[in-house]
Amino acid sequence: xxxxxxxxxxGDMRFESTNPSGHNLFIDAGEESGGKGEGYRxxxxxxxxxxxxxxxxVAALIKKMKLEVDTxxxxxxxxxxxxxxxxxxxxxxHFHFYGNNLNEKKLQRAVDLSIEKYCGVMEMFRQFAELTIxxxxxxx
Length: 140
Fold this sequence. Notes:
Radius of gyration: 17 Å
Strand content: 25-35%
Strand order of the largest sheet: 1-2-3
Helix content: 25-40%
């Protein structure tokens, strides 16, 4: 299945990128790199893609397993190499689940299924980064 994205230069360091969903996004460098900070940074966008991919898996599994979760969030931290081309060599993801009736075993299974089986972006990251995944449960 082919996916097509078109990214168009808008001048300076700013670009607009299409998405198959029909929602476009803007990419821009920070002021320290000649941009105005009016868009997403490309490397940080990769981390959002990683968290979003896994988050969609987990949300679907929460629904399928009929689990009670008030909300959850994924905090992602990455280490950028010093030498060019700079890339993420270490990535840590922290899944935080909030609620009064959390089924910790099933929620952990949902996270595990995402990171081991379903999330294609996770598999891409495995090609170049060391991944650490932690799950945290919080009473609401």
